[in-house]
């Protein structure tokens, strides 16, 4: 009797499995996929050893202004006054612990995915030579904001195509000391910021641009970058570093000197997906990682990079919000030397204190950590790590 019942069980199980699989496959074939992913070749992630050895140094950071602001992506200082742009479209200042709205580029309502294009999303923010703020708004373009009056002035509008390309996701910017040139990234001419996961998964390419504040001209300097993200001028202003998020690497573009107009690799095969990059007081650079590629361990990102069909399946069946929930909350900030070698790394393996870190901004011995999602800014005392 037992062989008979096991046979029945097997037949029942296989029938059940087939009856579930066939419609699922059918549905998967028929469903539209929002993305058209290309295979991406990545090297095996670097081992997290030596200066990259996991630690819990980021847990020494303190959370500031918790639940009083949301998604403070990028941070700057004018004296001891702090400025940041938030997920509800505002550019805010924090003075003596008090939060005030300085300006907004878009208009309400804000809060949902649908609102984001009209609400606006200030991302990269920098201080110009006259203590005005230069802001990259993902949906509206490049703006100059007077922090005293709140007056905003459009410099580059996303409504104007540049060399035939639409700017769909203006992301970060870096400004020369004289305020003449602004180098900025457009992360995609196809996807908007609210669809950044599609952009990461699809691996489409876009560019690095230059805006001249005197001639008002916009030039495309580099194309073919996969998710160009954070940008930073070197201290000597002879090159710009641009993070290529989907490729886990940093490219270098020369803006002056003998190499002007040339480009090379600054750091490749990083332990995570780089978001923003900022100067460190030692002459090097702080790089915040939007996600980590664990080694030893399993990197889902690397696993899927060569397998576009898996990405298609996932995005046919699941929303971006659902997929985001599966991404590990590992926070990592690395400091690079001026030549691109790793100096030190600060980790928070489960995102206990610091989560979704987008930028590390150094000011007066502290590292201020921006985040594209968290409702706070973290501050780490560099003397204590």
UniProtKB/TrEMBL annotation:
Keyword Nuclease: no
GO cellular component: endomembrane system; membrane
SUPFAM superfamilies listed in its UniProt record: Calcium-dependent phosphotriesterase (SSF63829)
Family assignment from sequence similarity: Belongs to the strictosidine synthase family.
GO molecular function, one term: arylesterase activity
Strictosidine synthase conserved region domain mapped to chain residues: 171-257
Keywords: Glycoprotein, Membrane, Transmembrane, Transmembrane helix
Gene this chain is encoded by: Apmap
Major subcellular location class: membrane
Membrane topology type: Single-pass membrane protein
Keyword match Acyltransferase: no
Record-given protein name: Adipocyte plasma membrane-associated protein
Subcellular location as annotated: Membrane
